[in-house]
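Appendix C reproduces, verbatim, an entry submitted by the partner laboratory led by Prof. M.T., so that reviewers can inspect both the input and the predicted structure.
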Amino acid sequence: MGPLDILNHALNFMAPAAAVALLLVLCGRLFGAKGASAMAGWRQFAIVFGVGLAVLAAGLVVFGRDGKMLTYAALVVATATCQWFLGRAWRG
């Protein structure tokens, strides 16, 4: 496998985490309470994206392959919980 193939596989592996993180941060800004998060949007994206990558990597290790629906469900739950904490939604 050449370097471009490796890059293609790595980007396709990271794409679900990036898409979910971007949607969560944008929706959090749009629908969340005004001024709820003191953190910059790019920083929120980086944290949620990192959590998503960790979940995808854990799914790859546990199941031995990428793309299992249980891994994607865990991705959604973990990133949404992370965004909930970052948006300080537990304060009501």
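Helices lie at 3-31, 41-63, 69-86. Additional entries are available on request from the coordinating office.
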